[in-house]
């Protein structure tokens, strides 16, 4: 562990854990197998974590089940206090937590620290929501009965998260689960497990009891681990963030026990610039939405529609700003955009660029992978992207801005909604009437009107169509981890 800790260069090296966590103990896999974690900026090994499987998953579920018997009976105020302590511990260790994110994910250190702060905010938010899980009194049609509802934790929760936000995707789910009184078994992504393990260590320090949080790390055994999480009768809820195809598989598996499911799946966000928009504001919004995390976010602008009257102006300004990006190691202060997570991600961006260009698109900036160590693709802007380009149907998940010209409002609404998914959408306009019309017409779960930012702990996050089920964050987030029980009092 010492050598791995040294690779991260933290102030508190004990935050780096290289084992899974079951029933309050740091443990290895039964067969000793390991997963190698690398820095995508240079392909160097950061360390290893256990390659766990079905046996460890069942042990983690059993531990969570035992812990639930007591954790569910703690008061909301008690859980509030523990979550606030965990929030403060994350604040105190924000530099280290941000550095871990940068090293295993690749995003810049500024983004890593930003994610760490965002992650911590979910523990603060749900600490306050814990003490507001109100029931209600329902007027009775009979004089001798009284009716009330109470909210209770659903039980053991299985949490599966992606690598693009290795910290925030954990806390957005775990904060709500703990606040509700649930216990959890978490499968973090094999590309970025150290952030999850560091948060688990801080949770232990904050006083979260043994068995309430359990971590199963796996890569090769992900199918059997996921299947067990979904089909186990002990697990009462599954929360997943990831691709739509995987979401459908997990949803199907979970149906065998009719457990609660919340899913945040893929997106293909439209970004619309109308002729009456503030173009400079729209350009900045596109940069914020499209290129944050080097384009590796589920709410990234994927299809950028620009009205013909301002198309040339917008394209010129966007290309100029993107050409000024500094791509490199996220720890370098001069870097504005880091690497992609792995070579497969680079290949997908290259595929989308090549496809669009072969069909008539023009490269304004970038357009190729960088000939340096690590998983880098140059930030790219394409103009004149045709309607039959792959990027219109597939989420790129990389630093590729595809510009598509449109003429009328009705036309662009049809184009924007011509997708099986509907997570987020953005548009820029200074026409008040149009702002309302378009916001209501877009078939997405979240709309950014004259902004490229949508995320905050107090906001409900989620999509429609094949982008998922349920909401995370906001006051809605804790409801996903609770059930409503009716109590009728008779004989009064």
TrEMBL record:
Q: Which GO terms describe its cellular component?
A: cytoplasm
**Alphabetically ordered keywords of this record:** Oxidoreductase
Catalysed reactions listed for this entry: succinate semialdehyde + NAD(+) + H2O = succinate + NADH + 2 H(+); succinate semialdehyde + NADP(+) + H2O = succinate + NADPH + 2 H(+)
Under which EC number(s) is this enzyme classified?
A: 1.2.1.16
Q: Does the keyword Transcription apply?
A: no
* Limits of the Aldehyde dehydrogenase domain: 26-486
Q: What is this protein called?
A: Succinate-semialdehyde dehydrogenase
């Amino acid at each position: 562990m010492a050598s791995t800790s040294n690779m991260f260069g933290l102030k508190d090296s004990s935050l780096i854990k290289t084992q899974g966590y079951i029933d309050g103990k740091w443990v290895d896999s039964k067969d000793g197998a390991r997963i190698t974690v690398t820095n995508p900026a240079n392909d160097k090994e950061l360390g290893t974590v256990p390659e766990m499987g079905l046996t460890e998953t069942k042990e983690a579920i059993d531990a969570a089940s035992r812990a639930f018997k007591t954790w569910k009976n703690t008061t909301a105020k008690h859980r509030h206090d523990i979550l606030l302590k965990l929030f403060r511990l994350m604040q105190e260790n924000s530099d280290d937590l941000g550095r871990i994110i940068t090293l295993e994910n690749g995003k810049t250190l500024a983004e890593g620290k930003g994610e760490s702060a965002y992650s911590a905010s979910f523990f603060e938010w749900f600490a306050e929501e814990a003490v507001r899980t109100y029931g209600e009194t329902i007027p009775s049609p009979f004089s001798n009965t009284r009716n009330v509802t109470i909210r209770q934790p659903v039980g053991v929760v299985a949490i599966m998260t992606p690598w693009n936000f290795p910290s925030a995707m954990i806390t957005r789910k775990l904060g709500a689960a703990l606040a509700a009184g649930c216990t959890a078994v978490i499968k973090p992504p094999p590309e970025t497990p150290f952030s999850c393990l560091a948060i688990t260590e801080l949770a232990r320090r904050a006083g979260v009891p043994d068995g309430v949080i359990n971590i199963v790390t796996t890569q090769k055994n992900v199918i059997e681990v996921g299947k067990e999480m979904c089909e186990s009768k002990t697990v009462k809820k599954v929360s997943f963030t990831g691709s739509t195809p995987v979401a459908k598989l997990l949803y199907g598996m979970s149906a065998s026990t009719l457990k609660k499911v919340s899913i945040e799946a893929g997106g293909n966000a439209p970004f619309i610039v109308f002729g009456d928009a503030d173009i400079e504001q729209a350009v900045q919004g596109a940069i914020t939405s499209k290129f944050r995390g080097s384009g590796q976010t589920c709410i990234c602008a994927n299809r950028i529609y620009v009205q013909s009257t301002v198309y040339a102006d917008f394209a010129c300004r966007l290309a100029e700003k993107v050409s000024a990006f500094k791509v490199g190691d996220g720890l370098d202060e001069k870097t504005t955009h880091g690497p992609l997570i792995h070579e497969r991600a680079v290949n997908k961006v290259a595929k989308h660029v090549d496809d669009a260009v072969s069909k008539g698109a023009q490269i304004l900036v970038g357009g190729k992978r960088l000939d340096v160590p690590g998983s880098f693709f140059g930030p790219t802007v394409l103009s004149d992207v045709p309607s039959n380009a792959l990027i219109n149907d597939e989420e790129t998940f990389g630093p590729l801005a595809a510009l598509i010209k449109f003429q009328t409002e009705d036309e662009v609404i049809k184009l924007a909604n011509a997708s099986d998914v509907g997570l987020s959408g953005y548009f820029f306009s200074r026409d008040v009437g149009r702002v309302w019309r378009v916001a209501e017409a877009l078939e997405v779960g979240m709309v950014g009107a004259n902004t490229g930012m949508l995320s905050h702990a107090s906001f409900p996050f989620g999509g429609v169509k094949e982008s998922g089920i349920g909401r995370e964050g906001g006051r809605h987030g804790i409801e996903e981890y609770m059930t409503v029980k009716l109590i009728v009092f008779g004989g009064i």
